[in-house]
Design goal:
Length: 488
């Protein structure tokens, strides 16, 4: 029993604001409690516990939007009880999603006439979008192989080792082999030449990333397209390209309109983008757009008839909220091209302020590029005494959440810290963060070296082996700390 026996719904103390007046014992964590508690108590208890979560605005680990205008918040709250899938009942919401698909398809230069509707769908995020795009490629490839009387049981996909985890999920869930182009020191994106070398007759597509999660860098989709056209010509295959533009899809069109990465390149058949990243909507929305109707196999589409018209649906989820679709439409029409450009330019400038501030300290190497996603990825110049995980850990004391992580193979000996610059990360905060990072460095300088010493009798390792060992040790250490803190 959780509730203090002296408290009842009619008790005056119900209006108190402190959960401790209601709760004299710890809350049940495994079994649903026997009795009800007053709504105020439930609210207060949960609200109080949630205070211990990090502050989303200071969560610099995430690309996902944490601030929207109050007018949009109002629209979000007003539609929070609308199930998106009830297209019969909410035809206007469906219409708004279709308008978003059209606008985004035009932004990505899909070959459409002014009045033509684009092929695409709103998803829960880029992950669902990528599952759908991947399935379309797999099915198209299988159909072609069947027609040719060739085996179709060993599909593969070629990506860089820097892909986001959702590609690994796609590969495992839908039984497609993931062939990853390895990274190397100082080069943290997919090398198009190596990717094309890895393509074979079983390759359903090559996935390029516009805005690598690790350092924000854009991959060279144009070069990939050109090399792949040649290879296709030589071999008679028609291996297509998918662009994972989860974060870059709402950056490149505004900052680098001349950059050819999208449907202007003939082999790009589908593109995904996260509405909840630089699309500037709260968590829960992504988009996938196909070049033409022919690129989405008809057999994957389910048709729902309502109001005399045909509503095709192709998603993994059935029910979901409508708020994010409505919020996306709000942002597109509220900001327009001009507004998005201003927001993204501002993010880019704030990233520069941060980058220059970090460079001035003389302590860091910058691993991100200026013409990518507005983020700053950096590593310590000298990590002989303390490492990036400690910097990350200590920044928490100041409220900042800045992740440290190791690069994927073959660059796993490199550890970086990453700050994603979102719309709500102002110049003042950027300057403040530099000051706090300097404080952390000072703090670490004053501490004795914390690196583990090698066990006695250990064979002397090469610096690279030692570095890898230390990195593994710290990763484990940090994970365990997180587990015991219950933060994971
Ligand atoms: C964030 C991200 C994803 C996953 O997107 P969600 O919208 O979080 O599902 C996939 N790929 C890249 C490159 C990303 O940055």
């Amino acid at each position: 029993m959780v509730l203090s026996k002296t408290v009842s719904e009619t008790d005056a103390s119900i209006h108190s604001t402190f959960a401790s007046r209601y709760v004299r014992e710890s809350l049940p964590r495994f079994k649903m409690p026997e009795n009800s508690i007053p709504k105020e108590a439930a609210y207060q208890i949960i609200n109080d516990e949630l205070m211990l979560d990090g502050n989303p605005r200071l969560n610099l680990a995430s690309f996902v939007t944490t601030w929207m205008e109050p007018e949009c918040d109002k629209l979000v709250m007003a539609s929070i009880n609308k199930n998106y899938v009830d297209m019969d009942e909410y035809p206007v919401t469906t219409e708004l999603q279709n308008r978003c698909v059209n606008m985004i398809a035009h932004l990505f230069n899909a070959p459409l006439d002014e009045s033509e509707t684009a092929i695409g769908v709103g998803t829960v995020g880029s992950s669902e979008a990528i599952m759908l795009a991947g399935l379309a490629f797999k099915r198209k490839w299988q159909n072609k192989r069947k027609d040719q009387g060739k085996p179709y049981d060993k599909p593969n996909i070629v990506t860089g080792a820097n892909v986001q985890v959702c590609w690994e999920k796609f590969a495992r869930y839908f039984e497609v082999e993931l062939k990853e182009v390895k990274l190397r020191d100082g080069y943290y994106i997919m090398d198009p030449t190596k990717a094309v070398e890895m393509v074979d007759e079983n390759t359903i597509c090559v996935a390029a990333i516009l805005g690598s999660t690790l350092n924000g860098e854009f991959e060279d989709v144009k070069l990939l397209n050109d090399l792949l056209i040649e290879k296709n010509k030589e071999t008679g295959w028609d291996t297509p390209i998918h662009v994972d533009a989860a974060s870059g899809g709402f950056i490149a069109p505004f900052l680098y309109p001349e950059l050819e990465w999208d449907f202007r390149l003939p082999l790009v058949k589908s593109i995904n983008v996260s509405g909840h990243k630089y699309g500037l909507v709260y968590a829960g929305i992504g988009w996938v757009i196909w070049r033409t109707k022919e690129d989405l196999p008809e057999e994957l589409i389910f048709h729902i008839n309502y109001l005399g018209s045909d509503q095709p649906t192709f998603t993994l989820n059935f029910s979901k909220g409508s708020s994010q679709v409505i919020a996306q439409y709000y942002q597109l029409i509220r900001l327009g091209y001009e507004g998005y450009r201003n927001v993204i330019e501002n993010c880019q400038e704030n990233a520069m302020v941060l980058k220059e501030g970090l460079q001035r300290t003389g302590r860091f190497n910058i691993v991100s590029k200026d013409n990518g996603v507005p983020l700053v990825a950096f590593s310590l110049k000298d990590n002989s005494r303390h490492n990036e995980f400690e910097v990350s850990d200590n920044l928490r004391r100041f409220g900042w959440i800045v992740p440290a992580y190791t690069m994927p193979p073959d660059a796993q000996h490199v550890t970086v810290l990453r700050v994603v610059v979102r719309e709500d990360f102002s110049r003042t905060l950027a300057e403040r963060l530099v000051v706090d990072i300097e404080k952390v460095m000072q703090l670490l300088d004053d501490l004795p070296p914390s690196k583990p010493t090698l066990p006695e009798g250990a064979v002397k390792k090469t610096p690279l082996e030692t570095q890898r060992e230390i990195t593994t040790y710290w990763k484990k250490f940090v994970m365990e700390r997180k587990k015991t803190n219950g933060v994971c």
